From TrEMBL:
GO molecular function: identical protein binding
Protein name: TPR repeat protein
Source superkingdom: Bacteria
One matching Pfam family: TPR_4
Gene3D superfamilies for the chain: Tetratricopeptide repeat domain
Length: 576
């Protein structure tokens, strides 16, 4: 089992606050779109979070197709309640900037509604994908919280409890450690949950407060829970029992359970589908479970829908900042990964190219995860044997070490497949030169995995495949076993931090070496990690046939045929 969950969908998202682009306002009225659309007005999502807004006019749109989840709040007339509910739904969908704006509109419509300010303060705080708010955000959060405190005497008991708890999360002193405040807030929310044990939103917010104290480190490398993880799990399970269509509870439960026990979250994945069809991240979220349990077609399907939803939102709202730079490309990235595992090369390559197209090239040196996105076409070409496309891929600009690394890796494999050992060795030497660069260890482009760790896997794979080309199967196996060990040690993320499981390379080389029983074991091991992936099912079929295990081979062949039914290519081994 890999050592732990990564700290956020993109570990570098915390850097994005420095790059939020201030946008001019667009048209106030947008046409109604399809059933998965958001009809919106004034859809900028960066400027208003930290700057004064004109409260004499409508601040936020009412979106369509964000579901029906509601948390009635005191002193809110119907339209203000609608904006509060929308803010909460968007918060549960991790579109905190847009949620914040909805809470601002609720406060504009009903200035005495304390929970409208609670929502603003909540969304300005840390979350599991953005754990380090800057001082300006902390100041704005405190200002919003003071307004919530001002109106709290007119709120309900539940609302006063939530506002009182949020006071533990913030301080007027922006130098107070966020981790200390997170722990204090978790303790305060525990008390709120004890006082309101049957309120699904309270239970969900309590679980979120726990998870925020340890973003993506909920389980250790042996699958044992971190302190308080089981309390979060119990709270979310109870919230789901009380309200089976709660989008926030299902969302957090998927993230909590995707690594150690994804089967427990299948019901949440299935339930989340359709709850908020215009919220791309919510539409995407079931794929975190589907890809873990071998339901790759479902992962492809929901990410296609998520991409459409986010494109509709971004194009209408002229969105900038974290959402279009991180969350939206994540859907496309995920589509590439899922389609690759079932042989849909056209879909996968198109998604890979589109992922790269979303990268603002000038920011790759600062926002390292963008280099991972930019390298996706190289990885797709490697998966599907597009050697000429790899060799004509342009060299990146200076300073983009991670992208350079992946280009040298892909070129090394391309030269090996073309039988050019000399050129392949030159690419291996280029990888070695990059590994010697101290800066490589400072780059975190692939979730929480520094690029020197990724380079270790890349080097071992190229070295192993080169040794196999030269007929030295003993050395090839040794290198590829090292690649397997290094890949196993990478921090968990989806899509996987390494794009082609090295066991597939190792199994293919073992087949060449005639070591069929070991190849069988390797493929079975890979299928434990990536259930029902077509590449290892095919390799396993070959290994069984080579040993004369005809009946077992036929059974696996049937599984492969089912998985590969939408594929647009035929394969003859587990790696091309």
């Amino acid at each position: 089992m890999k050592n732990k969950l990564y700290p956020g969908i993109f570990a570098c998202l915390v850097l994005l606050a420095a790059f939020l682009i201030r946008q001019t306002e667009k048209s106030n009225v947008l046409p109604k779109r399809s059933a998965a659309s958001i009809g919106a007005l004034k859809c900028t999502v960066a400027r208003f979070m930290l700057e004064p807004v004109d409260s004499s006019r409508q601040i936020a749109p009412l979106f369509e197709n964000l579901g029906t989840h509601s948390m009635p709040v005191y002193n809110a007339p119907p339209r203000a309640q609608a904006f509060f509910d929308q803010g909460l739904r968007l918060t549960y969908a991790f579109n905190h900037a847009e949620g914040h704006r909805s809470f601002m509109e609720a406060a504009r419509l009903a200035p005495a509604t304390a929970m409208a300010y609670w929502g603003q303060a909540y969304d300005l705080g840390p979350n599991i994908n953005d754990p380090a708010p800057d001082p300006e955000r902390k100041t704005r959060a405190w200002e919003a919280l003071e307004k919530a405190n001002l109106h709290a005497p007119q709120a309900s008991d539940l609302e006063r409890d939530l506002i009182r708890a949020l006071n533990a999360r913030y301080s007027p002193d922006t130098l107070v450690e966020t981790s200390l405040l997170n722990s204090a807030y978790m303790d305060a929310m525990r008390e709120v949950a004890l006082r309101h044990p049957d309120h699904p939103d309270v239970l969900t917010l309590y679980a979120a407060s726990i998870m925020n104290t340890m973003p993506w480190s909920y389980w250790d490398m042996d699958g044992k829970p971190a302190p308080n993880t089981l309390a979060a799990k119990a709270a979310l399970e109870k919230a789901i029992q009380l309200q089976p269509d709660h989008p926030g509870a299902h969302h957090y439960y998927i993230h909590l359970m995707e690594l150690p026990d994804p089967d427990r979250a299948v019901s949440s994945a299935e339930s989340l589908e359709g709850l908020m069809p215009a919220a791309g991240h919510i539409v995407h979220m079931p794929s975190h479970i589907y890809i873990r349990v071998g339901r790759y077609q479902d992962a492809v399907r929901v990410n296609k829908l998520a991409i459409l939803a986010d494109e509709d939102y971004i194009s209408q709202c002229y969105s900038q900042g974290i959402y279009p730079l991180g969350y939206y490309p994540h859907n496309i990235h995920f589509l590439w990964s899922a389609a690759s595992l079932i042989g849909e090369s056209v879909t996968a390559i198109d998604a890979a190219k589109k992922t790269a197209e979303k990268v603002p090239v000038g920011q790759m040196g600062q926002l390292h995860f963008l280099q991972d996105f930019a390298s996706t076409p190289l990885l797709a070409y490697t998966r599907f044997g597009k050697w000429n496309d790899i060799l004509t891929f342009p060299a990146p600009g200076p300073g983009n070490l991670h992208l350079s690394l992946m280009r040298h890796y892909a070129r090394g494999i391309a030269f090996i497949r073309k039988g050019n050992a000399k050129e392949a060795r030159e690419e291996l030497e280029a990888i070695d030169a990059l590994i010697r660069e101290p800066e490589l260890a400072e780059i975190v482009a692939t979730a929480n995995n520094s690029s020197d760790r990724i380079a270790g896997v890349a080097r071992a794979v190229v070295a192993g495949e080169l040794a196999a080309l030269e007929g030295d199967y003993e050395q090839a196996v040794a290198h590829l076993e090292q690649a397997v060990a290094l890949e196993d040690d990478l921090t968990y993320t989806e899509p996987s931090a390494w794009h082609i499981p090295p066991r597939q390379n190792l199994g293919a080389v073992l087949m060449l070496a005639g070591d069929f029983d070991r190849a069988e074991a390797v493929y079975r091991s890979d299928l434990e990690k990536l259930r029902q992936n077509g590449w290892s099912l095919y390799g396993l079929t070959q290994a069984l046939e080579a040993q004369g295990k005809k009946e077992a081979a036929r059974a696996i062949q049937r599984e492969f045929d089912s998985v590969w039914q939408s594929a647009d290519l035929t394969i003859s081994r587990s790696v091309l």
